[in-house]
Amino acid sequence: MVHEVALPDGRRYPIVVGGLQALPEWLDRIGLQRGRCLIVTDENVAALHLDLLRTTLEAFGWLPHALILPAGEETKSLTHLSQIYDAALAWGIDRRTPLLAFGGGVIGDLAGFAAATLLRGLPLVQVPTTLIAQVDSAIGGKTGINHARGKNLIGAFYQPELVYADPTLLLTLPEREWTSGLAEVIKHALIGDADLFAFLEAHWEVIRHRAAELLPQLIAQAMAVKVRVVVQDERESGLRAILNFGHTFGHAIERVAGYGRFTHGEAVALGMLAALWLSHQRHPELPFDRLCSLILKLPIAQPLDGLTFSLLLDAMQVDKKTLASRLRFVLLQALGKAYVTDKVSVGELQAAWQFVLEMRRLAVGT
Ligand code: NAD
Q: Is the dihedral of CA 196, 192, 243, 278 positive or negative?
């Protein structure tokens, strides 16, 4: 076991970084009864890794049944949720049948919500296959689907019984998905772990090229930040909001650009530059250049055309209205120390975006 999520009410579950071949031993260890299990995955993951998962489970006496869904954010929908319900109920499950969410954050969120609601709750095992999912989305129990009015508007807090991350699965990730995950790892370092930040700086070239020997440490350390936050604030009544560092601008960028033009992590990386600028205004002692320079090493090729400040501000207001909340920003007071504030003026936001545009101009040399 690498970590344990131990919630204040006594619920606890292990988080493991290890080879897929040892997953069945962990299923035994957490007390699941061998028999039927349902795997929910997407087409890309299925083509690359489903055979290995299936044969590994079968070798230990499991009877897996796989449901393969299309890849992409659109799959986090009521239509595909219903498809999981139909397939699971037609195949035959009972309350002890585990559901394995085998994929990135999309599959983890969707299948997690299916597990939360089928027969009022099936044992959920998260087997994340993207960097974002391994260090972030598979941990903490947020599950759900999107609605036409916005992302993640329907869902439940439902903790898994086990999170099992195999770093070697990440070697097949497309380059942009890897970069997107690295942006989230940098985010975890900025909000919660100065040592992780130094580790990233020291080994950046090797990490960027996914050197297998560094992956377990990278993943385990980035997971630890999420675990620390979640055990203190499972339901996002306070601290958990710091995980949204870079997300206020990030969500607006995704919305204005049209979902899909930027990956989530690319948008968050740009949002983090804006958030660092705002942080530096309030905390001049922050090592601003050092922090920005790691983010700027992320290879983000997408041009920022069309992302005017007024469109971004409108998009932030839409988010705010949908959630009936105030416009909130996560800022840093020091490396590894984040807090939430709603005291940011429109003028400052505009200057922060100007800074992002300027950084990009310098980075691409135009
Ligand atoms: P994703 O699940 O769409 O995966 C990205 C792409 O990588 C997909 O095309 C997928 O098929 C492919 N892929 C996955 N694993 C692969 C592998 N090993 N090899 C090759 N290709 C692979 O996206 P994501 O970035 O993992 O997750 C984003 C989602 O996570 C969003 O919906 C977001 O809202 C959610 N999220 C949830 C939480 C949470 O706390 N629940 C936190 C962060 C993000």
A: negative
